[in-house]
Amino acid sequence: MNKFIALMKERLSCSRYEHSLGVARTARELAKLYGADEDKAFLTGILHDYAKELSDQELLQLGIKHNLIVDQAEIKQPQLLHGPVGAVLIKEELGIEDNEILTAVRYHTTGCSGMDKLSQIIYIADYIEPNRKFPEVDSLRKIAYANLTEGVLAGLNSTIKYVVDNHQLLHILSVEARNWMLQNKG
Ligand SMILES: [Fe+2]
Ligand SMILES: [Fe+2]
After folding, report:
1. pTM for the structure as a whole
2. Which superfamily does 2-184 belong to?
3. Segments making up each domain of the chain, as ranges
4. Ion ligand 2 residues within 5 Å by Cβ
5. Nearest ligand to the CA atom of 79
6. 56-65 helix and 82-94 helix, angle to the nearest 10 degrees
């Protein structure tokens, strides 16, 4: 674990490294609360933004090379690819083979239908980790610590509203994720 923490400290800016640690700690807490693997949640949190500081051009190139483009939105907003590209890179460069980790990293920005527990934990931990400051973050935290799927659904709703309000392209996977969570929340 320590080698991955050191590697990310080296790789990321100070604030994004602090964000990654915040996601890792929040993910570990949520994993404990909801009966998931705490170490795996922490590791996934540390690694989730592995590709976040690549340029738009690098993300697009890698997205095309690895066949990761699933929606027009990714061409217009290549930052949407940092999850899928990150999943490919941590497999290739760090030898991470665990499919739950790779899936959680891949879909941590958009969500997807059929999100498993680890993917849900990372999605919402990314949203509510202690360094996040936006008006509804406290209410999202409360929801996520009371009911994981309700928390993820609230996060997806909040993202979708933000994207619409800011005239950005809405990623199809976020719509699929929201519809799936709405029908499968427990
Ligand atoms: Fe991210
Ligand atoms: Fe993040």
Report:
1. 0.97
2. Hypothetical protein af1432 (1.10.3210.10)
3. 2-184
4. 49, 126
5. 1
6. 70
